[in-house]
Structure formats: C-alpha cells, structure tokens
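Handout, section B. The chain below has 373 residues.
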Amino acid sequence: MSSAPYTHGQICAPLQRKKLSFLDRFLTLWIFLAMAIGVAAGHFIPGIAGFVNRFQSGTTNIPIAIGLIIMMFPPLAKVRYEKLGEVFRKKRILGLSLLQNWVIGPVLMFLLAIVFLRGEPAYMRGLILIGIARCIAMVLVWNELASGDSDYAAGLVAINSVFQVMFYSVYAWVFITVLPKWFGLQGSIVQVGIAQIAQSVAIYLGIPFAAGLITRFTLIRFKGEEWYRTRFIPRISPLTLVALLFTILVMFSLKGDLIVRLPLDVIRIAIPLVIYFLIMFLISFWMGKRLGANYARSATLSFTAAGNNFELAIAVAVAVFGLNSGEAFVGVVGPLIEVPALISLVNVAFWMRGRYFAPENREFTVHPVEHTP
C-alpha cells in the first residue's frame, strides 16, 4: 500500500487520505474500548482466562494466533511479491533496516532495562527478551495504517524472520548471560532452541505469508489484476481491524486481573517501553529521510524498527523461565503498551508527512491505492 495513486508508472503527487469508514475514523477509540473491555473481563470474570487458556497448544495461544494470522492476511495479500527483488536491490535502505533492528534496537532496550529495572532482574530479563525479538507480525498492520510501503514492509519482515531463526538464541545468550556481568549484574543461563524460534516464525508469519502469496497469484491468474485490486482487496481489508480488536481484547482479558492488582509493576515496565518506541521511531524516521527515502519507506523503516515480536518473546520466556515468571509477565504487558503507543505513532507519522515530506519528494512508490485507513 502506498500514499501514491496508480498511474501506470508515472510519478505524480500522492492523493490525500481517503474518506475514512466509520470503523477507521474512530479506530483509536475502538482500540481503547477493546483494551478496557479485556481488562474488565479479566478482572471481573475470573474464569475467562482459564477458558481462553483451554485453547492452548504448547506455548501458543490458539485464539490469539488465529487473530494475528487473520489480522496479517489482508496486508500480505496486497504485497506485490513479484516486486520484492527491488527491495533487496536497495542495499542502503536494507542495510539501514538491519542496523536499526539488530544493533540499535537490542542495545537500546538492553540499556533501558539496565537503567529502569536493574532492581527487578526478572523484569529486566523479560524486557531484554523483547528487545532482541524483532517485529515480524503487527508491524504490517501499523505500516498499513500509516500508509507505508507494503512491498518494503514484507521484504524487511522476511529478512527479520531469517535473522531471528539464525541469531535469536545467540542474542539471548549474549544479552542475558554475558553483557549483564559487564554492568555488575548476575547473568542468567538461557537456553533457547532454534526449533522454538522457527515454530514461532512459522506460525505468526509463515502461515499468513503463504496465504497472502497463494491468494494473490491464484486470484490474479483466474480473475485478473484489476478485479483483484478493486474488488477483492477492499472486501478483505476490514478483516485487519476486526481481527486486531479481537486480538487486543483476548490479550488484555488474559492478564486483566494482574494488570489491576499490579498497576505499579505495569507502569514500571511501561516507562522504558514507551521511551524505546519513541526513540526508535523518531531516530529511524530521521535516518530514513537523511538517506533519501520517501515518506512511505521512511514510515516502513520506522515501524519495523520500533515494533517487537512479543509472541516470540513470550514463548521463549515461558519455555525458559516458566509460565508464572516475571519474564513472562513482561512479555504479556509488552503488547498492551505497544498497541496504544504505536497507534499514536501512526498519527505522528502522518503529521511528519505533512511537515517534512513535500509532494515532490514523495516519488518512490507508485502503487495502486487499495485501502488507506
């Protein structure tokens, strides 16, 4: 998806944001309502968490997994997979994304964990696990809402997925076992199997990725690209927001009681997370613009760098430290902070587009306008 209109290869000024649907216009309100309802349900209906957890397979919560898969299907169905080669040919932007995700992001989160949570080692480790788990899921939703470049988002997410399978266990060992000792803290032995990471990536990215790719090529072959772009995509686009609200409600209901009983702990965890999201987003936007990227690609770089793979962090925390550990609690609190933080940054992104990206500098991406929340 792009802010630029479809012009058969011609460059022209982007369209204004389309008139929003009722659901889109009050998106922030719906998100906060879903959060509030989830917390209230988790607190006042004691059996709800147990009911949801009945649908658990290993460390995978099936309702949440289904919500995430459905949520990511429309953005991935819009990706022009035949154009992904262009993403990898832009080596400067690709290199910048790798720097943001695998050097700046993990180091920044590690330092914030040390500064704010050194007195709570379990929470500190949980935050570090989040910092080294780079986003492969909900970034696609934030990128779409901010009119980022869908093709670039898919390419960068694919790269992050490969890196996570290859290096997450190494990063966990370095950042949790080795580096804390340099700051006078006791390190923990962390054993993370590559199979655990591969399973998480396969569920939360592989399934919707395959579904989007197969859907695109199959339907375009039988119905044509015009029908696919103008008829099919608008019909499935609302699934993203509906599934997002469902996923938020379920996540908040699972820990609603804990959030109410331990509000100060939630705040302590939230402070470094909010600082992290803000710093990563703004630095990445600045770096992208300095590199010459247009708005759509700068937004994609920023949301890819600011987001985290909480599903993987939770799965690893549960597997290594236990379901009731402080590390697992941080993993659950994480997305509860990320959702309102990044939905706010979507609005910041649009403000920055109007403030710092003149129409003549928004030339890179010339895609069909399929859906712009």
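Note. The longest helix spans residues 150-182. Compare this with the example in section A.
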